[in-house]
Amino acid sequence: MTLIVQKYGGSSVADPDRIRGVAERVATTRKDGQDVVVVVSAMGASTDDLLALADRVAAPPFPPRETDLLLSAGERISSALLAMALESLGVPARALTGAQAGIATTADHGRASITDVAPGRIREVLDAGCVPVVAGFQGRAAGTLEVTTLGRGGSDTTAVALAAALNAGLCEICTDVDGVYTADPRIVPEARMLDRIGYEAMRQLAAGGAQVLATPSVAYAQCHRVSVRVRSSHGTSEGTLLSDDPTGPGEVNGAVIGVAHHRAVRIGVAAPDELADRLLVAERILRAAEGDDHEIDVAVCRPDPGTGELSFVVHTDQAAALAAAVEEIGPGPRSAIRRDENLGRISVIGPASVSRCCAALMENGITIETAARLRHGVRILCGQDRLDDAVRTLHTVLGLGTPAMAGAAVRR
Predict the structure, then answer these.
(1) What whole-number distance in Å separates Cα of residue 259 and Cα of residue 391?
(2) Helix (H, G, I), strand (E, B) or coil at 365
(3) What residues does 4 pair with on adjacent strands?
(4) Backbone Cα Rg of the chain
(5) Rounded to whole angstroms, how far apart are CA atoms 9 and 231?
(6) Does the domain at residues 258-397 carry the CATH identifier 3.40.50.11810?
(7) Which regions of the chain carry the CATH code 3.40.1160.10?
(8) What is the spatial distance between Cα 174 and Cα 124, in angstroms, rounded to a whole number?
(9) Rounded to whole angstroms, what are the CA distances from 164 to 85, 116, 217, 324?
(10) What's the whole-number mean pLDDT along residues 22-38?
(11) What is the pLDDT of residue 308?
């Protein structure tokens, strides 16, 4: 029998009916002659609910160790309920925590990285004729008994890591979209889904704001050459295959692939007057913020004569981490002095022309904050109030909605 790892996100297990639906899907896969290992996220908004509970009993920031222990409960609940649902269908199943599944991590609470996977326990469950149902997003700090969480998209990374350790034939990320698109289909109705995409192309899309796969999971898949298929947890579409196939159309060095975007925040930080000193401050801030899932853009500017400033642009979800990193370098003149939340960041993945992109946006009355040609595409900052318009404009002018130019998919 071939082995497949299936991961189901929070929306797929959001309520009892959906959990039973996932159980039926897993049972069908098993009847088709495949061994199955399942990884689950927390139910719906339960992670936010747990944080809200913490807020009612304590003032933030919460202790990182206890926060990890608290948040890991969400995935454990999902895994136990899904195992029960499988048992009710006559499919033997065993729920496992990340630690029980052999996931070893760094000791970085809230943003741990997987260092090793010992799949012995999972193989024992499989050999006993049962379906292992693993709580995603968590593990155990190597050499300790401490529970850790993996940060944004951690269940994706759990699934890919287990697939690599078990030499699975495929890792399926079952979610609420059919696959990877050339842009967010909720914003761009003519966005197209691609049959397959290369690792590097997907990594760039994820880093640019696409949420269909978490950036660390793509990097792990690329490093270990795990074939990943993104598909709907409800329909029958084959979805998008992520692999190292260089002949696929979703390669960074070929045609333009897609347009990713996200809401952004710019934080201005006062810094010493000398350029070398400002760069040293920037390095210290970046080192303190290291480990976040989204890239941090850095620009050094002098808005007024004799005044040095560092300008950091980050995903809205990473603004708090960056602000904490700024505080970490010490109080005084190097604290955050300016915060602009009306920004959107767009990433065009592939060999697009900066001038063409900017001209198209300006023709549509969209003000551009900055634009730059990067190694794998074009990066543009604009006002958040015109972000959706900018994505639609670029998707159209780059011809991504036509069959000849269709690339990989993005979702935000």
Answers:
(1) 7
(2) coil
(3) 36, 170
(4) 22
(5) 11
(6) no
(7) 2-176
(8) 25
(9) 27, 11, 11, 34
(10) 97
(11) 63
